[in-house]
Automatic annotation (TrEMBL):
GO molecular function terms noted in the UniProt entry: oxidoreductase activity, acting on the CH-OH group of donors, NAD or NADP as acceptor
InterPro entries according to UniProt: NAD(P)-bd_dom_sf (IPR036291), Sc_DH/Rdtase_CS (IPR020904), SDR_fam (IPR002347)
Residues annotated as transmembrane: none
Superkingdom of the source species: Eukaryota
Swiss-Prot/TrEMBL keywords: Oxidoreductase
Family to which the UniProt record says this protein belongs: Belongs to the short-chain dehydrogenases/reductases (SDR) family.
Official protein name in the record: Uncharacterized protein
One Pfam entry name: adh_short_C2
PANTHER family for the chain: 3-OXOACYL-(ACYL-CARRIER-PROTEIN) REDUCTASE (AFU_ORTHOLOGUE AFUA_6G11210), MOMILACTONE A SYNTHASE
Amino acid sequence: MSFETIINVTTAGVFFGTKHAARVMIPACTGSIIAIASTCGILGGFGTHAYVSSKHAVVGLAKNVAAELGQFQIRMNCISPHVVPTAMAEKLLNGDQVSRVYYNMKGKDLQEQDVAEAALFLASDESKEDLLAQISMDQSGNKHPMSALYGLQQEQGSRSNVLGSSFSMNGCQIFAAVVGDWDMLLCILSIFSYIEHFRLEGKVALITGAARGLGESIARMFAKHGAKVVIADILDDLGQSVFEDIGLEVASFIHCDVWIESDTENAVNAIVDKHGKLDIMFNNVGILDPPKPSIIDNDASDFERVIKVNLIGVFFGTKHAARVMIPTCTGSIIAITSACGIVGGLGTHAYTSSKHAVVGLAKNVAAELGQFQIRMNCISPYLLLTLMPKEHLNDDQISRVYHNMKGKSLQKQDVAEAALFLASDESRYVSGQNLAVD
């Protein structure tokens, strides 16, 4: 194919599909537009000039569309798979070349099912706050240059040869621009047929800071989907109340101060003694320091306290989760970060530094533990109306935060559903990523 042909199909085709999907979604003030992209939409050196150019072009288109259509509660997101062994890929690569692609997650290859499950997440209401996200599915962690972009933040992916398909799921019209490969399309359609099931059946999860707020919502979500959940917190009375409300048969509580390593170690050991394993480690605890007008006014003690809880606490949780996950060669480790872990100027110096550090830790851990089929990812919510931000912002400041998705504000449920995706096997080929829920 000529350069012009590939651009016309891959880029202009996406534009036409997006344009006409938007035309019918705008009056309804709802919709999800999804693009299957590629790692070629993140960096160069992975494909032909035409293909890479077309993918990057759709990245820009998706960003612009998300900014424009947010006011109508219409989302646009991309999925960027690495090499999927479809008919199209097999025409270009031999078996040995394909096998060399998967050098980090030993024993696992990226399959159409993995991409389809990411598509399900972005198409569903679980991702309704992911206005502009790119799911990079390459399991490369930090061993690959692509990890520098940790594709789940506000970098958009792009598309392959496009065919448009319009269909209905739970009453919502969804437009999906998918690879020109019928196998992939049929796989995505089949995934949409089983949305409601116990997605964490048989799994055991440890959730820190789960006695209230976001952690509590995540614990309830995981239990709803079949997991045994262990609530770890320093708030004993609240923690006991939450686990009793969830149900004694599926939940339990353990006292744990995350920046005391022995507390975390003991919590993990207790879980393995009781359940025989740990499948999901959710690092949720975080604190803020008092905002100061200048770095000159910041106290060293405040900085050190925030780093100790927000970063070192995550390090301890990750370390001891890995200790028991490595022998079983499976596991999902997740850390709550923040939009402050993506850009500067949104929070205090201590808080922003700690959240950026957690993103770096997650990328490094993903690179190390991929060989054991253990994943680590981050979730970066924008302003979530929990007790912590309400202590620092008034109602007018909070209302100004939600200026793009008119009529919608970020809720704990939105973040819990993103957590469910990353905890479940639906994201088994997603690691070293930072999912921005904003």
